[in-house]
Design brief:
- The protein is an alpha+beta fold.
- It folds into two domains: 75 residues, no CATH class; 63 residues, no CATH class.
- The protein has a three-stranded antiparallel β-sheet, with no helix packed on it.
- A hairpin with a 4-residue loop joins strand 2 and strand 3.
- The two termini are 41 Å apart.
- GO terms for molecular function: nuclear import signal receptor activity.
- Belongs to the OPI10 family.
């Protein structure tokens, strides 16, 4: 059995069976939805999701129960704009570290009056500025994840 949880709403359990392998949840006021979670209890679930925002007032969240091989074949045929799993965790960690440092640099640069060239190797940055950045950064990560780091490029 499935349950659908939209952020800020009650859990939906009104799954409508379409056929033997397909079912849907109706999601009213789709324009206000920013997070959706589908729960599956007692079974292994593998699949794909899309971040395409519906222009309609109501959206339909569809579920398809398919063999894993078929799901993997369908996911591999998705457009290249869809992010696929990266098999190189070192590259991911390096990219993440670069984005975090760039975020810190941009934050610290804002304290030199819009003149980043004023930041020289001898420029002193108070630890309070770094501590405040860290507090804000961690709060943002806890609240929204790390996607904001990718948008800053």
């Amino acid at each position: 059995m499935f349950g659908c949880l939209v952020a800020g709403r009650l859990l939906q359990t009104n799954l409508q069976q379409v056929d033997e392998t397909h079912a849907i949840f109706e999601l009213p006021s789709a324009g206000a939805i920013n997070h959706v979670c589908v729960f599956l209890l007692g079974t292994v679930f593998s699949g794909a999701a899309s971040d395409v925002s519906p222009a309609d007032v109501t959206a339909i969240l569809g579920l398809s129960i398919e063999p894993l091989a078929q799901i993997m074949q369908e996911v591999s045929s998705l457009p290249s704009a869809v992010v696929k799993a990266n098999n190189n965790p070192t590259a991911d960690a390096t990219r993440l570290a670069e984005r975090i440092v760039k975020h810190l640099f941009n934050y610290v640069s804002s304290f030199v009056g819009g003149n980043p060239s004023a930041l020289s190797p001898d420029f002193l940055i108070p630890m309070g500025v770094i501590a405040k950045w860290y507090e804000n950064f961690m709060a943002k990560v806890r609240n929204t994840g790390i996607a904001f780091l990718e948008r800053e490029e």
